Amino acid sequence: MEKLFAIFGDPVAHSRSPLMHNSVFKHLNYKACYTRVHLTDGSKLKETFLALGLSGANITVPHKEAAYAACDEVRGFAKKVGVVNTIINENGHLIGYNTDADGFMFAIKEFGDIKNILVLGAGGTAKALCAKFIDAGIKVTLLNRSQERLAYFRELGCDCFTWENFELKKYDLVVNTTSAGLKDEELPAPSELIEKILDNTSFVADAIYGKATPFLKLTQSKNIICKDGADMLLGQGVLANELFVNHELKTDDIKKYMSKSFEL
Ligand code: NDP
């Protein structure tokens, strides 16, 4: 029987995941189809997943923490961070994983040895990335517009600030994990602050892909080496697909056809 997979998010229309996974399924003759579901209420994730008879799913903004709560069991790195971006249906049990952080580590390899990162934003993506960075021995500073979510990051060992009390230092890499610029034209922090931050970093990465955000445009105007979220998307997608097909396909083949979908 053909398997059905989906991505849940709000917004979700922009997501390239259906193209990426369907490209792999089609070229490698794997009997499956991948669609998108616009979900506004994260607490309805589990019932919607089961009602659609899904074999697996990806979860994007803003439901990754709701996805953690929706799972019957959470494995690996996702368990540590409380953030799930991939769910597998194992005999009616929802098993949660996180492939975002490893996907991001793959994306920043080309920047070389990174020792000191400033993370903008404190949502689900930031949680996963910061935990991975700390595990890798990287010094992490976090800047968010509001206080509420900072406790988790303090406990992890990050230096945490809001826009009001931020103390600028020098960074190897600045990563935007906020959703500023995704559906609007906002910067991830007030422009005076962003200007100063950009003047004190070697590299920049934005988690948002498929769109030059105001943040990325400003970065480019300063001739700083930067990248959008496309490679992170590819990295997390390859790892999620391996879980979807239960490792029945070769990783190199998955990567090849997933990369091909970026040309579409
Ligand atoms: P969450 O909703 O969990 O967190 C969003 C964060 O952004 C919060 O810290 C929030 O601050 C902050 N924020 C939202 N709007 C603004 C704004 N206008 N100005 C400043 N800060 C803002 O989202 P996720 O962590 O799940 O996702 C974040 C982004 O990363 C999304 O754009 C998503 O598309 C992208 N992403 C890309 C991936 C890829 O593969 N390339 C993978 C995963 C995510 P506050 O706490 O104050 O509300």
List the SSEs and their pairings:
Elements: E1 3-9, H1 17-27, E2 32-38, H2 45-51, E3 56-59, H3 64-70, E4 73-74, H4 77-81, E5 86-90, E6 93-97, H5 100-108, E7 116-120, H6 124-135, E8 139-144, H7 150-156, E9 159-162, E10 171-176, H8 191-198, E11 201-206, H9 214-221, E12 225-227, H10 230-244, H11 251-260
The protein binds NADPH dihydro-nicotinamide-adenine-dinucleotide phosphate (NDP).
Short description:
With 264 residues, the chain is an alpha/beta fold.
- For the report, how would you describe the main beta sheet? 6 strands, mixed
Output the CATH homologous superfamily of the largest domain: Leucine Dehydrogenase, chain A, domain 1
Number of H- or I-type helical stretches: 11
Known CATH architecture of the largest domain: 3-Layer(aba) Sandwich
pLDDT averaged residue by residue: 96
CATH class category of the largest domain = Alpha Beta
How would you describe this structure to a colleague?
The chain has helices at residues 17-27, 45-51, 64-70, 77-81, 100-108, 124-135, 150-156, 191-198, 214-221, 230-244, 251-260, and strands at 3-9, 32-38, 56-59, 73-74, 86-90, 93-97, 116-120, 139-144, 159-162, 171-176, 201-206, 225-227. It starts with a strand and ends with a helix. It has two domains: 3-98 and 231-263, Rossmann fold, CATH 3.40.50.10860; 102-228, NAD(P)-binding Rossmann-like Domain (Rossmann fold). Strand 7, helix 6 and strand 8 form a beta-alpha-beta unit. The protein has eleven helices and twelve strands. Helix 1 crosses helix 10, helix 1 (17-27) crosses helix 11 (251-260) and helix 10 packs across helix 11 (251-260). It is of the alpha/beta class and 264 residues long. A six-stranded mixed sheet has the order 2-1-3-5-6-4, with helices on both faces. The protein has a six-stranded parallel sheet with strand order 9-8-7-10-11-12, sandwiched between helices. The longest helix has 15 residues, at 230-244. The radius of gyration is 18 Å and the shape is globular. NADPH dihydro-nicotinamide-adenine-dinucleotide phosphate binds next to helix 6 and helix 10. NADPH dihydro-nicotinamide-adenine-dinucleotide phosphate is lined by residues 60-62, 64, 100, 121-126, 144-146, 149, 177-180, 182, 186, 188, 207-209, 229, 232-233, 236.
